[in-house]
Amino acid sequence: MSLAFLNPLFLYGLAAASLPLLIHLINRRRAKPLRFPAVQFVLRANRRIARRYKLRQLLLMILRTLALLVLAAVMARPVLTEEGALLSGGGPPVALAVILDTSMSMGYRSGAGDRLDHARTLLDSYLAQLRGEDSVTLIPTARLEATGTRQAPQLVHDGRALQTAAADLRPTFGRADFRGSFMAAYEALAASAAPRKQILLLTDRQQAGWAEFDAASLGKVDPNVLIHILRLGGAQADENRTVERLALQSNVVGSDIPTVLEATLLNTSGTPHRRVLAQLLIDGVKVDQQLVDLPAGGRLPVRFEVAFEKPGRHAGVVQLSADKLQADDEYHFSLEVNDRIAVLVVDGDPRTSLVYSETYFLSYALNPGAAMSRSLIRPRVITASELEAAELGRYQVIVLANVPSLGEEQRQRLFRYVRDGGSLIFFLGTQTEAAVYNDTFYASTTRLLPVPLVERKQAPSGQPWHISTVEAAHPALRLFHDSLAGLLQRASFYSYMQTSSQALAGGGKALLALDNGDPYLVEGQIGAGKVLLFTSSADRDWNDFSTKTTYLPLMQNLVLYLSGAQANRLQDSLEVGDAKQIIAEGRYAGSEVTVTDPRGMPRLLRLQPQGSHAEAIFDANTLPGIYLISGAGKQQSYQVNVPLEESNLTEFPAARLRDKFQHLPVTISDVPEEQPEVAEPAAQRYDLWPYFFATLFGLLVMETIVAARF
Fold it and tell me: Are 488 and 467 in contact (CB under 8 A)?
């Protein structure tokens, strides 16, 4: 600690402390001889008064002198400062741990380079001051190094090696790990015998890295290690924009079908951005673009339209025109585009009028834009007599709607189709009989029904049944979770075919059930294929479900599920630094999968058994982009994007940052971006003038009491 004064010119006011003494000397009374007869009593009283008067004057002089001295000290503002200069030329050796912020926000360009370049310039200046007995180490704040691990830092006496290491550092695409960096710094300094130990942090003090930091989580620390935090950046708030999220607006995604993607652009600064170019690229080819104005500190949705020419996996990116922080100007995504789904619908009760046909509402639900050539689901309606000539292998799903029965050869063909992986849907109706269906589709070698039928149920007049139970966890029914499940209850069922509850317990699974407990939709497995049984009709003969709004999404989701088509949802994006959990079937435990990063670099992982499945963890997601996973019987992809918090360049307040370090000795200073030379951290100071002011007040009170009482 050393004493200093912020206003040293006021120390000249100390000379004013001589005024009370001069006044005292001037006003000192001199004894005058009296010519009157001496009276012993009067003489004694005069002596007592004189002694009392002299004591009062002396006390007043001392109090007034002290008051003037303290007043001058208050005006000069005395402070105690912490001794903490970096690598000072004199004094004992110094062990210095330099923490260099390499988070994404340090790539913000200002002037000729970015902020990491500015930090390197400052670091070179500090390292140039190293003496032979001083030691130093360099610790980047990246959460993940190229190897996925952080090496323990070592103190060295030659700063040139650290200059070379710092020159190779580049801003990463993730957040800063300040907790791990400080723990590494304390670990390195603990191995040093230097009497002076310091930590220097060069950072832009951006909010994302500090929000989760807590000095208490560092464990055991050395309170004698001085911490200096230097902030690099301008006085004004930094401007930046990014893509906050991306959403898929289309109901289904298929080849050659118009698909709408909506990107939400975010302006994180208080300045509006004019004429920002937003582009959509698919597989590296630009397919759409928009020129937009971003409001200050606001969001703006931008819609892109694209038609994928081919089915399969596609990689896309939403790209903004470059700004001063280019790392977050792109948002990556991957999308599985479905091929056309061919559905063969067998109408068991065709009518002369199309609207009264058994499959009219079903065909419209599967393909609402029947007049348009571009549709994901392409149903073809035939009669039962035409089924014999149909090539079943061309269709992913076959629907039997109120078909009375089928011949032996047709049943054999259907059975082989389902057993080999095809999907079949039964709708019952006025022409289906329980006994016939049980004989031909259940109790036979060509078993296709998941459960046997019992009898037809007819609702009392004015008391129809409604759907009350939804297996919302099923992939085809996830749309109807929570409040949306209530929409299914609006349909009224006047008749249905009851199924055997005992057979249901041992075979099929009820996905939808009526309010009397009987199933409405049952799923079964036949070989490699799936079978769905609707216990009511596809048209309005037994219910009014086909006229409700939920009929269309239910039928489309069931067909998508049966055909193996991908859900119409963009895959959740990981952030740089997050780990990816790769899950495979248990039979693949011990085998290897390959993860290929956006640069095309492969990495092998071995799947470990985890209960009924196998899994591996990939923790080297250090780059934004699309990652490919191959092996374990399939190929898949996932996207990684930069953390959204890193795009907000708001400065973390110095007062809050000082509070996070609790009782540790820390100094916090700002370094102007135009200042390339060494900037010494501001020393920790303790203001003393409040204590001097309180002393002055006490002296004045005492002076008043002495002047009035004596």
Answer: yes
